Amino acid sequence: MALIKTAPLERAGHLERKQQRDCSSLERKLADPSAEARRWAARDLLDCPDSAAALVERLGLEADISVREVILTTLTRLGNSVAVAGLVQSMRSEDAALRNEAIEAMKQLPEAVAPIMRNLLSDESSDLRIFAVNILESLKHPDVELWLREVIETDAHVNVCATAVDLLGEVGSQVALGSLQQLKLRFAAEPYIQFAADLAIKRILED
Amino acid sequence: MTLPSISEEDFHKFREYFYRKTGIQFEPSKRYFVDKRLLERMAATDNSVFRSYFTMVRFQASGEELQVLTNLMTVNETYFFREEYQFKCLVNSILPKLVQHKRDNTPLRIWVLPSSSGEEPYSIAIYLLEKWADIHRLDVEIIASDIDTKILEHARKGLYSDRSVGQLPLPYLQKYFRKTRDGHQICDDLRGAVEFTRVNLSEPADTRPYRNFDVVFCRNLLIYFDDLSRKTAAETFYDALKPGGYICLGHSESMSRISSLYKVVKFPEAIIYQKPME
Description:
heterodimer, A: mainly alpha, Leucine-rich Repeat Variant, 1% strand, B: alpha/beta, Chemotaxis Receptor Methyltransferase Cher, domain 1, Rossmann fold, 2 domains, 7-stranded mixed β-sheet, 3-stranded antiparallel β-sheet, 10 strands, 42% helix, globular
């Protein structure tokens, strides 16, 4: 017994793909009883941009976390409008893990998310608006501060504004000072908003 | 005649393309590093403007120039017994756990990626031979992969500088190396013990055959990747590992920040990540 050497491809020879790997077969494989087969299908669907809808549909049903992660990564890498719409749909799910996974995925897609950000920030659900602010937390986009200012200037929900003001304290510039003062006036009876807005103002002035 | 140069736009175009091909992300602070190498290759291939060179890289059927460029753009800084505590963890904690749960007599399989110039996989081989008694009753395969074909040649040759072997205990240096005019030549037994292969971690067609590993060493590579590429790499390793297999990352890297697929295992020597048992 010792250190031995065999060619890795030779060892994997028995794993040669036995299945058809065209897009429609891969989509069917998303429902395979084996989690490993579903993971591989989800990964290989990266070469099938039209499969975003099938991936989104599977995401809503998929219970295995390892498959879900791969589906989300593929959707993120596809990054097309269907994929993004599917991620938005997941943000509305009752499943907290799925919601968080969708938020994390959307943070990676600044170009695809930017055109719909204002819609998300004005959604009728305050929860979804809070999630949209969560996306802004690490979305690499030049309009992040502008969107946050719009939220604290217009949103009627205290929790949405509180989430936005916390973030504005980290990423805001002097341009945001007026919006922060205005926010304090709008929520004069909310101690947390007063505290958070003052803190944001202090941080911005220190920068 | 004006000298060739790389504009801001060229840099961004190249950066985007190279990222898609390799998963490696160059921050703007790396501009000088990237420009220097691009200009070097433009001169070597008789391209006086970036545009024609970039077209050649993108559309060359053989992919040869992309490979040359990849070799130049990757960092291959390593030495024997670097981050030795993980090798201690391998022989004292990881392998005993794996052996305890092993139900067949197939070899234990270790995948080292990136192999760089071979110091890490050869260090593992030395550690197993010197510090793991079970090597006498069990077979171990070490497969080491890298995206850089030139560095793989270096690894297969096994010739190292004083600096490379500087951390090796003298008895091991004397036992496994021969001093030559050009440096320290690793012995044929060790050269024959490690399989070196070319793999692009960001290319599913490359990684697909790599399966059934018990341990993966992927140290100080993911720091060059962006979040999405790190996540993709974590998923690739997940399918490369057997259920219950372990992955060792570099000391500044944390799988918990990349993916929730793995369990964190705190061994006395190191924190390692494990693919859950099915």
